[in-house]
């Protein structure tokens, strides 16, 4: 027991020959980072859960809601992520994540005191800046604890935080907002992150670079940032992989920002009912899909001795998810909508860990955080930045058309969103095309 306690004492990076960890500690690291990512996504998801009461209080449009959940967050999340990732390739990643966690948690709690749209917009910007310091350093940290043959699985555990956070955000947001109001919900999900940051600083160790591959002593300094970015972007594999991931995220973020609104408008759910149902559908479906996406990718690539299976998994799962998503948003039958939504989420969440693992096949150990940040720059700008905003704009456009056809404002608002969501999901086919293009060149462009 004393050995484990010593092992969990935070310290400066040790030399490769001095750094020793048990398998139990590796698991502790990846599952702790999963919890951090849960908080990351609780603080991100809570806004989508509470859109309807916020819209009613501030009299916002769907376009404004899309800007809050998309552009306000994504522009700073993606751009600030690049310099933070560069710092993570050079310095202590544990410290970077802990400080970032403090920032985004405080900004989430501060949202409870917003008085208008501008206040909401500014809070979301600060949340985006804080959360930019989470995933690239965490991906890099995990890659130094887990060797390549287990890396997609480890990254899938971390990535499950998206749906663990979505589960808590939907459940807590819906129930707490129903009982105590949306402002209390923001406080409850923001404040615990402050304590988590302290625990992280006290218990996580910074491993030597390249430790999981046995070559940490040969990895000294990262190449210049622009050299890494130019080299990576010059690879056809990365260009297609990042666009594929971005288009996938475009669908995921575009529709998930309006899950609650869709169930409330088209199926008559209350805020609490929508939150509870979606917590289990999105939470369980997303956790399962994310985990099995990573494990399947690892197992298939090892079984066939072919790293292209890392990208085949998201390509195939995209096309399975598409028809279920279309039915989920077009049907008027509530039970069918919920079942199809669950199946869509199971298959539509298999892409992230294989995409990150595939990216890491293209770069060296001192370039991984920056590679993650560049992948996330494209992924989140297309997905998070454009997805919700364009979905909201398309919803408003359809609404105006239906009003011109004689529908009531309430019915046109519901139908406009339903048609917008059904239209957006077909971008999955475009994403699949780019995954297959990335597979063509992956093996010849791998880092050696």
From TrEMBL:
PROSITE patterns per UniProt: MFS (PS50850)
Domain of life of the native organism: Bacteria
Domain Major facilitator superfamily (MFS) profile: start-end pairs: 29-440
Membrane topology, from the record: Multi-pass membrane protein
Keyword Disulfide bond: no
One of the record's GO cellular component terms: membrane
Compartments it resides in: Membrane
SUPFAM superfamilies: MFS general substrate transporter (SSF103473)
Key words of the record: Membrane, Transmembrane, Transmembrane helix, Transport
Record-linked CDD domains: MFS_spinster_like (cd17328)
Primary localization: membrane
Membrane spanning stretches: 25-42, 63-84, 96-114, 155-174, 180-199, 241-262, 274-297, 309-329, 335-353, 374-394, 417-436
Listed Pfam families: MFS_1
Classification via InterPro entries: MFS, MFS_dom, MFS_spinster-like, MFS_trans_sf
Any GO molecular function: transmembrane transporter activity
PANTHER family per record: PROTEIN SPINSTER, SPINSTER
Name of the featured protein: MFS family permease
